[in-house]
Amino acid sequence: MGRLLLISDDLARTGRLARSLGPTRRCTVQDLYDDSLPSVQPDLIVGDVAQLTSEAIARLQRMLEPLRGAGAPFLFLTHGNAARAEAQARLLAPTDILPALTMLERLLARIDHLLEVGGSAVAARMADEARQFFDRTFFSGQMVTPELASTGTGLIARAVQHCGLREWIGAVQRFDEATHRHCLIVTGLAAAFAAKLGFADLDSYRLTKAALLHDVGKTRISTAILNKPGRLTDEEMTVMRTHAALGYDMLVDSGFSREMLQVVRSHHEMLDGSGYPDGLRAPEISDLVRLVTICDIYGALIERRPYRAPMPGRQAYGIVQSMTGRLDPDLVTAFRPVMTTFDPTGTAAA
């Protein structure tokens, strides 16, 4: 529901406000006159300061600078003379201003709106950081190492945890580079899948990292094929399908574990032996590969393509469900909550 930081010059008053916002909104109350920095990075900052003295304004400006730099919107609640309080509040450049005595329903609606807007902005910033990471590492020609992969894994896992899966995918969908877009969507889905499965930190990290690496071989495919504004020909598809073996060859002597290498090479293998590049069957395909394959297929279906709009999430899940005998049915069922998180109403992210 989003993390709220309420900055106050009266802890008792602001405490009552926090309780009135309900248990689903995670509120932290910060004393304006406490010189320690807030312990949380909020999704929304609420200023509940009745006495806007010059000292209070200076303290608010110092406290807000690092918090708003991370993209959090700022709602200021005015007290007393409305015109004077609003003029003073404007010095703080708030995202929005409301009277402190605003009806609770209106206040809650404004908070939810600002959380949505702020979440989109933060997701866009974090997605752009991830795209720049791809450019600096996977697409720069340098060797991809386990250390670099760990950096990217942490970056995306934190973004999905902070912004939510829907906001993350919505931000990534706006990218023009098809490979960046697909890899970041699949990695976000894997991070969310790990959370829904209740994985411990180490297992969650393994799945997210495997998804990050799964299509690394595409960096060795011609950009004319990768970014083609239309469906691939049979010949182009044959070239595209070499990416799994190419990725394996890229990483095999770079210090990656056997399970990571298996994901890179085998994420297009199917349980019935109809996949590529090796035609593996169920006993030869690890659980980690099976997990990434589901994220990969679902991600490709909901992804924006030059020749089609993103497929609605529930429709995409229906296609995944229909792949009987090719995908692990228990894991497909376990993926349903991820689909619901991304697509709660049956429409795809824009």
Overall form: elongated
Strand numbers in spatial order across the main sheet: 2-1-3-4-5
By secondary-structure content and strand pairing, the structural class works out as alpha/beta
Q: How many strands, what sense, and barrel or not for the largest sheet?
A: 5 strands, parallel
Roughly what is the average pLDDT, rounded to an integer? 88
Which ranges are low-confidence, i.e. pLDDT below 50, for 5 or more consecutive residues?
346-350
Q: Count of helices?
A: 15
Number of strands: 5
Strand content: 5-15%
How large is the radius of gyration?
24 Å
N- to C-terminal distance: 20 Å
Order of helices and strands: EHEEHEHEHHHHHHHHHHHH
Q: How helix-rich are the residues, as a percent range?
A: 55-70%
Report what the structure shows:
- The protein has 350 residues and is an alpha/beta fold.
- 56% of the residues lie in helices and 7% in strands.
- It has 15 helices and five strands.
- It has helices at 11-20, 54-69, 82-90, 104-136, 146-163, 165-172, 178-196, 201-213, 223-226, 234-240, 243-251, 258-266, 287-302, 313-322, 329-342, and strands spanning 3-8, 26-31, 44-48, 74-78, 96-99.
- The chain has a five-stranded parallel sheet, with helices on both faces.
- β4, α3 (82-90) and β5 form a beta-alpha-beta unit.
- α8 (201-213) crosses α12 (258-266) and α8 (201-213) packs across α13.
- The longest helix is centred in the middle third of the chain and has 33 residues, at 104-136.
- The radius of gyration is 24 Å and the shape is elongated.
- Mean pLDDT is 88; it is low at 346-350.
